[in-house]
Every structure is written in C-alpha cells, then in structure tokens.
Amino acid sequence: MQPSIPVLALLAFALSACTAERAAPQDAATTPPQAEPLDQPVEDVPPATAPVGEPPATTAPGPTAATYQGYGQARFGMDADAVKQAWEGELAGIPGADSACYYLRPKQADGLGWPALMFADGRFVRYDVESAADVAPGGGQVGMTADDIEAAYAGRVEQRPHKYVEGGHNLRIKSTDGASAIVFEVDAAGKVTAWHVGVPPQVDYVEGCS
C-alpha cells in the first residue's frame, strides 16, 4: 500500500529538520573563545631604551696650508724643483737672466687664496697672499681690522709705518722660534689688505723682488 501524500510530506519535513540540526554550529556558550593576539606582554616590562652611543669625537680643524715654515708641502729653504714636486698643481714663472729673486705662481691662480711664492738665490723664502680665502698662521686674514690682528696675536705685534700707504702701517709677528715672520699690510682705514710670510731679510722687503 503506497503512503499518502500528506505522510510523505511529513517525513520530508522531519528529515530536513534533522539535517539542519546536525549542520547547525554548536552553541556559542559551548565554543571555547579564540585567543586574540596580545599587543603588549602580560607582565610589566620596562620600556626599551636605545643603547647610549659614544659621544661624537671632536674633530680638530685641519691645519691651514699657510704656516710659519712654508705653504703646504712647500717649505722655506727648498729649491724651485723641490717646491714644484711638492706643489699640488703647476707653478708658472721664469726668473730673468740676472735675477736672484723671482716669483712662481700657480697657473690656476684665480684670486681664491693662491699665494705667490718668492725665491731668492734659488731657494723658497716667502709667500704673498692678497685674498680673504686664505688664513695666515695664527688666524689673520685679509679684511680683518688692525684691532683684530692685535687681539689674535696679543703681545707679539710690532707695528711699523707703511712705506707707500699714507696713514697705513705694517703689523709684524715673529714665529716662536724667530726663524720667520708674518707681515700684515694695513690701509689708512685700518683694514688688512694683504699679508706675507717669510724668512729674513726677504720677509721685510717692501716691494717684493723689486
């Protein structure tokens, strides 16, 4: 005997309800909570600190090229060939046939502090500077005042009248060993216009090699 349609429908409903009950997730109360990642550790941890580094080493300023002994690797007393080998770059200048005194100048001389190198009797004896780009031994520069020079070389400055500049004068400072000296040329307004370093007697020549 075939079951009636209502009975079949009832069986189908019961079967679907049973399947749905099996597929349904367990009650949330019975499901163990998932552990969430912790942003911070449970225990108190002192804040991280960056390692303290050593303080930066104080870098002493490099020595100026101008010294009481010469300029750069060119030292007073060297002959012209030795100076040309020591010089970084090419030096130009040729002594006259009867000239015991002459200058060599860097070919790249452009007013940026390159000195003119004086030679007497074949030896390097002096260098002349007319630019504020170079610094004399002890800190003097073109553009400073006479008072600045007096302060920088306190107790060591010998003042002499300038031979050609009315109201001007020269400030002469000897090296500690007395072997050489700086001469700053100061105009009537009290400003340094040029300076040179050299050994006697050439350091005191007023007109260079003239």
From TrEMBL:
Residues 24-66 are annotated as: Disordered. Residues 24-37, 45-66 have a biased composition (Low complexity). It comes from the Bacteria. Residues 1-23 form the signal peptide. Keywords: Signal. This is Lectin. The lineage of its organism: Bacteria, Pseudomonadati, Pseudomonadota, Gammaproteobacteria, Lysobacterales.
